[in-house]
Write a structure and sequence with these properties.
Blueprint: H1 10-30, H2 38-41, H3 43-65, H4 71-76, H5 86-111, H6 126-138, H7 151-180, H8 196-204
Helix pairs in contact: 3-5, 5-6, 5-7, 6-7, 7-8
C-alpha cells in the first residue's frame, strides 16, 4: 500500500478481516468481566489493548479515506459490551503517528514522493496531516482530568514526545528528498534506527 484514498488490496483486506475477527473474539472473551463497576475497575488492564485497536483501525481508515476515524466508528467495530473511552481513543491516535511515519518514509523511498490524496480529493500529503495532528495534540488540555500526576496526563506526556519525533523524522526525510533527492540512489531509506526502538517502546510500554 503506497497510495491514499484507494481501496486496500484484496489479499491484505482478507488478512485484515481475519485478524479483526480474532481480535473481536478476544474482546468478547473479556466482556463479562467489564460490566457494571468492573468496567472502570479494570479499565487500565484493557486500556492498552483498546489503544492498539484504535491505532490499527485508524490507520486502515486513514489509508482508505485520508480522514481520522471517529470515536463512534471505532466503537462500532468493537463488541457493544466493551466500551471505548475517550482517553483510549485519543491515546490510540497518538500511536497512529508512528504508523504514518513508517508509511511515509517507505513510500518516499520507493516512489520518491510523499503520499498524498487522490486527484480531485483532498490534495493533502501525509506530512501535512501529521503536522495537523501534532498541532491538535499540542493544544490538548488534560487539566480537567485532575492532578498532573494522573494516568492520562502521564500517558499523554510520554506519547507527546514520541509523536513529535515521528513528525520530525518525516519532515527531515522530506527536506532531504527535496534538497538532495537527485543524489539519492533508488530505494534509499533514511536511517531511522537511532531511537526508533526506544521511541516505540516508550509509546507502547504503558
Amino acid at each position: 500500500v503506497r497510495d491514499l484514498q484507494t481501496p486496500i488490496p484484496q489479499g491484505i483486506a482478507k488478512e485484515i478481516k481475519t485478524r479483526h475477527a480474532s481480535i473481536r473474539d478476544l474482546f468478547v472473551s473479556v466482556a463479562p468481566d467489564l460490566q457494571g463497576l468492573n468496567a472502570w475497575r479494570y479499565q487500565r488492564q484493557i486500556s492498552s489493548g483498546c489503544q492498539e485497536f484504535v491505532e490499527a483501525v485508524s490507520f486502515q481508515h486513514y489509508l482508505e479515506t485520508q480522514l481520522l476515524i471517529t470515536p463512534e466508528q471505532a466503537q462500532a467495530m468493537m463488541p457493544d459490551a466493551v466500551g471505548l473511552t475517550a482517553e483510549d481513543y485519543v491515546l490510540g491516535l497518538f500511536d497512529l503517528t508512528g504508523e504514518l511515519m513508517r508509511f511515509a518514509i517507505t513510500s518516499m523511498a520507493t516512489s520518491g514522493s510523499l503520499p498524498r490524496g487522490a486527484e480531485g480529493g483532498s490534495g493533502r500529503d501525509v506530512l501535512a496531516d501529521m503536522r495537523s495532528l501534532r498541532t491538535c495534540f499540542e493544544s490538548l488540555d488534560t487539566s480537567s482530568t485532575g492532578a498532573s500526576g494522573s494516568p492520562l496526563n502521564w500517558d499523554v506526556e510520554k506519547k507527546m514526545d514520541v509523536m513529535r519525533q515521528s513528525v520530525e523524522k518525516v519532515e527531515t526525510a522530506a527536506y532531504g528528498l527535496i534538497i538532495r533527492g537527485r543524489e539519492r540512489p533508488k530505494g534509499w531509506v533514511p536511517d531511522l534506527s537511532e531511537g526508533q526502538d526506544r521511541g516505540r517502546e516508550a509509546m507502547e510500554s504503558y
